[in-house]
Please model this.
Amino acid sequence: MSRLAALLPTTFSRTIEDWLAEDIPSFDYGGYVVGNDEKVATLFCKSQGVLAGVPFFDQVFQHTGCTVTWSIEEGAEIIPLDGKVAVAEVRGPARRILMGERLALNILARCSGVASRARRLRTLADTLGFTGVIAGTRKTTPGFRLVEKYGMEVGGADTHRMDLSTMVMLKDNHIWATGSITNAVKSARSVAGFSVKIEVECQSEQEAYEAIDAGADIVMLDNFTPEALRLAVSNVKTRCLSSHSGVLIEASGGITEETAALFMLSGIDIISFGTMTQSVPHVDFSLKIAHEASEPASSANGVCDF
Model:
């Protein structure tokens, strides 16, 4: 289970309540139609992907008074050979199943989409013998970050920093606002102390040298071509890291799933992908209540009376 799952009871319950309230601001008219008869709905997966988001799905239906039983483990790769695969069953009053249906499916589809891309990138890295970290970024959907970061973890990627309070990342605007990389790092260290890591976004080798000399823990080589990145990593490692052996090198900026292999180079400690959450295709799920055939209307003796 992802380490983020432990945060759900305290940090996500209110969020789900708010999302349900957003979907039902006054009265659920469709829910009135179906009533409170106990029903069983089957969750189907209809496209290939990694199943992720189980705790969120469960919590939605806990809020609506239903129970969920899973037949496939989270993190499994689902391949629907016959068009769809049964993944879970949801039991409860019909209107309460439908109350949580769309919210639960939206969460599961997005989380599984992120996990699927993370898994493909991690598998590619392993295939190529790249031992560095495959990470996401903070380019997440507002209000949905925990779901997307969770998907990264289930897929085998690192979440990178969770928010502005968990690590200092000094980007071009920070540097321009303070006048230099040295000034920015010095100022950051004065408030972050020894316990918080500082990363600096660098556009050139010279900026990387300045960042390392100023005391950065991580240097991000940003928007380098694969050829320029290979040369820069070699030069930075040779020139600086003999006396700064703990400094990590991250590659980032415009790296996609399609171009990732070109950046999986020796000497790189981390590759981060904004595309792990941006424009990621979702995994297709549907939730269907079991159909119960109804008896045709007729008179007692089978003859219609007019």
The two ends are 65 Å apart (CA to CA). DSSP finds eleven helices and twelve strands in the chain.
